[in-house]
Amino acid sequence: MSRAASALRARHAVRRISSSSASSPEAWDVPFHRLQKQRGQHLLTNPRVLDDIVRRAAIRPGDAVLEVGPGTGNLTARLLASPATRVAAVEIDPRMASAVTARAAALGLAHKLTVTTGDAMEVEFPEFDVCVSNIPYAISSPLAAKLLFGGYRFRTATLVVQREFARRLVGAPGHGERNHLATNARLVADVTLLMDVSKAEFVPVPGVDSSLVEIRMKEDRPAEVQPGIGLDEWLEFTRVCFGQHQLQRRRQNKKRRKEEKTLGTIFKREEMAMELFRLSRRAEERDGNGAGTSGLDAPHHGDDDVGDGKEVEDGCFSKEEVVAFKERIAGALQSARLNNERPSRLSNDDLLRLLQLFIKRGVRFH
């Protein structure tokens, strides 16, 4: 199909969308049993809000658009009618994938749409210029992190997320609503709150209001946060501080999340200390640094919960080595005087200072 013919179909689709929905909510009563709240299936139905989202996304001719969680296609229809060349949608629910595919066909724009059925956190996204999505609440944080730090090269992501998460994402460093994602996002992107969206605009009505945010990627991703501290090292360090390391997330899945822990509590956990020990040994080998994280030259002050000194996953190391390594962790926290502090109450400078002390003592995170 020629570009001119495709553009003409898109203009006709815009007219149909505008005339059919200017005064009434988008249709959502698609032919399957019911929407699944556990999957975050809250469909945005206000046509004016949907139009405003696409307008603010500022899609350019020739853009490739990514949409996560298209649902029945209320937003997708407008993305297809935009100047975008193609729209790639990722949908975990096969019923929704069929519904949005059928809707694109009914609009005569099926040639612009590709639907991948799968979990957005596991699917590898195709190349895209902009992401425009009404994100399922349950994956707001991990999906934003995937977009920001997953190596994708794109211009902007315009996302509908729960209002509380939006406030945290744009919160100033040291603010009570700040989290690790906000801390790291500023290194690679500018995040802007565009507008609030009432929960009354969704079907079924969720328990909280939403907001529209824009993530605009910076042209250059820094290799280092500051001299001597690589970006990847910093990202992994803050994931640990804010409870987003895979070990911590597994624990959270097993039991209800409690109040934020202090840095001392976070780093004294046996499994976390051993994970950092392994990472530090790998970093030592990778960097060719003989000064060591093995800790063989450090004093031994007792058992300190290190088990029986048997083989550990990535090789053989002694009980004394592990004890010495844990002392290095404790020494860094003590020197920084941050042992009893909670990460969300600290500034970037505080966290950078602690990471410098860890690295100086051979404790590595990447």
From TrEMBL:
SUPFAM superfamilies: S-adenosyl-L-methionine-dependent methyltransferases
Record-listed E.C. numbers: 2.1.1.-
Residues noted as binding S-adenosyl-L-methionine in the record, renumbered to the chain: H42, L44, G69, E91, D119, N134
GO molecular function terms listed in the Swiss-Prot or TrEMBL record: RNA binding; rRNA (adenine-N6,N6-)-dimethyltransferase activity
Family: Belongs to the class I-like SAM-binding methyltransferase superfamily. rRNA adenine N(6)-methyltransferase family.
Location of the region described as Disordered in the Swiss-Prot/TrEMBL record: 283-311
Source organism superkingdom: Eukaryota
InterPro entries: KsgA/Erm, rRNA_Ade_Mease_Trfase_CS, rRNA_Ade_methylase_Trfase_N, rRNA_adenine_dimethylase, SAM-dependent_MTases_sf
Full protein name: rRNA adenine N(6)-methyltransferase
Residues of the Ribosomal RNA adenine methylase transferase N-terminal domain: 49-219
Organism: Urochloa decumbens
Swiss-Prot/TrEMBL keywords: Methyltransferase, RNA-binding, rRNA processing, S-adenosyl-L-methionine, Transferase
Enzyme class: transferase
Keyword Thylakoid appears in the UniProt entry: no
Xref: NCBIfam families: ksgA
Sequence ranges of Basic and acidic residues compositional bias: 298-311
